[in-house]
Write a structure and sequence with these properties.
There is one protein chain. The chain is built from eight helices and 24 strands. The chain is α+β, with helices and mostly antiparallel strands and 420 residues long. The protein has a single domain, classed as Anthranilate synthase, CATH 3.60.120. A hairpin with a 2-residue loop joins strand 9 and strand 10. Helix 1 packs antiparallel against helix 6. The N and C termini lie far apart (42 Å). The structure holds the ligand C=C(O[C@@H]1C=C(C(=O)O)C=C[C@H]1O)C(=O)O. It is an enzyme of class 5 (isomerase). One of its GO terms (molecular function) is isochorismate synthase activity.
């Protein structure tokens, strides 16, 4: 295990205050260009900036170490929480590697958090603060954009999909999610605020997130914990949008597709199976619904549960629960170990934090984590370049060309934000 924690010298000794302020209808407008942290949906959620503390962790036990670190950190703080809702008081933003054993997960405690829930806005910071003024984002885009293939060009990626279908047909596994990356280079540095604004405007049903240069708008909620109540939105099974009557036809075909329903059921089963030992009750509707986004439609199932009140698992915090459910078959496959091994063999890229859990947790253990999808990582070395990611579930009968087209419509979510 390697862990590197950076904490500002006075952080542990200080008093953190959460106080209600005038309503901020537009949380994203308060973000500075540097170090933007976000988890926002329909004008509610959390934004943050500055780093009171930061932890980077890799290896077995990465999430347990992060949970212990967060508990020790919050234990040292004096907190005056005048708001008392999930997300008030100390908050940790997190972006966890797809493979937390091999990849680096990043945890950031912001200096300042602005939160909004049920129309109530608050600020959390050391000492009392007003709502900072909105900061205008300078006009003008990133200039010309040049795209380049990532690790696998489309032909080689289709060959990887065909190889996966063969392995599935041979009975090695039932489902694997294969992803690819796309590199974009701009003339000017990419401004995360402009990208977040466009993502939030175009995808109001998604969670617009930013942690340590990884930005996106995800439609998939891996797990929310509010007290003992747990909820998730599982997605798998995708169709493109069409014009006019074609759009309705595509929607009906998705809902009626045996292939997509089977692929979806594997994703729901993987979450429910992993969560069940922690729950006294857990339920998922029999039938998936359609989630309609600007670029795609998904089969969606909202799962709800209650965490046990007794036994060792009753004490599991949100980070432990995240470690137990990730990777679900929405981003890994079925069975998990075989799918993750096949991803390593065929995908040819390091997913980094793409398809990993991203979100926040507070000192009570309440929080929300999505899957980092429909996203891009701005290069830490060169803010003019970014790496976009998109993947799809491969099952028996998957057609490589159709899967390639699916990655293209998924990339289009972030490309539209880039191209404005
Ligand atoms: C892997 C991604 O999306 C996942 C795969 C889906 C599918 O294959 O139908 C649908 C939603 C997500 O669970 C992605 O967007 O990169």
């Amino acid at each position: 295990m390697t862990a590197a924690a950076v904490t500002s010298p006075d952080a542990a000794a200080r008093t953190l205050v959460s106080r209600k302020v005038d309503d901020a209808h537009d949380l994203l407008a308060h973000l500075p260009a540097e170090g933007a942290l976000s988890w926002v949906r329909r004008g509610e959620g959390l934004v943050g900036w500055g780093e009171a503390a930061r932890l980077e962790v890799t290896g077995p036990g990465a999430l347990a170490d992060a949970a212990a670190w967060w508990s020790a950190y919050t234990g040292e703080l004096t907190v005056e929480d005048h708001v008392g809702v999930p997300g008030s008081g100390p908050v940790l933003f997190a972006s966890i590697a797809f493979d937390p054993v091999a990849g680096t997960s990043v945890f950031v405690v912001p200096e300042v958090v602005v939160g909004r829930r049920d129309g109530v806005t608050w600020v959390t910071s050391a000492g009392s603060r007003r709502l900072p003024s909105p900061r205008p984002v300078p006009d003008g885009g990133a200039g010309r954009l040049r795209y380049a293939d990532g690790e696998l060009d489309p032909v080689r990626w289709c060959a990887a999909v065909a190889a996966a279908v063969e392995r599935i047909t041979a009975g090695d596994l039932a489902k694997v999610v294969l992803a690819r990356d796309l590199i974009v280079a701009a003339d000017e540095p990419l401004d995360p605020r402009r990208l977040l604004r466009r993502l939030a405007d175009r995808f109001p049903d998604c969670w617009t997130f930013a942690v340590d240069g990884l930005l996106g708008a995800t439609p998939e909620l891996l797990l929310r914990r509010t007290g003992r109540e747990l909820s998730a939105r599982v997605l798998a099974g995708t169709a493109p949008r069409g014009a006019g009557a074609e759009d309705e036809r595509l929607a009906a075909a998705l809902l009626g597709s045996a292939k997509d329903r089977a692929e979806h059921a594997l994703a729901v089963d993987s979450l429910v199976g992993a969560l069940a030992p922690y729950c006294s009750s857990l339920s998922a509707p029999e039938e998936p619904e359609l989630l309609t986004l600007a670029n795609v439609r998904h089969l969606a199932t909202d799962v709800t549960g209650t965490q046990r009140r007794t036994g060792p698992r009753s004490r599991a915090g949100l980070l432990e629960l995240i470690g137990a459910v990730h990777p679900t078959a929405a981003v890994g496959g079925t069975p998990t170990a075989a799918a993750v091994a096949l991803i390593g063999e065929l995908e040819g890229m390091d997913r980094g934090r793409y398809a990993g859990p991203v979100g926040w947790v507070d000192a009570r253990g309440d929080g929300e984590f999505g899957l980092a999808l429909r996203c891009a990582e701005i290069s830490p070395a060169d803010p003019c370049t970014a790496r976009l990611f998109a993947g799809c579930g491969i099952v028996a009968g998957s057609d490589p060309a159709a899967e390639l087209a699916e990655t293209q419509v998924k990339f289009a979510a972030f490309q539209a934000a880039l191209e404005g």
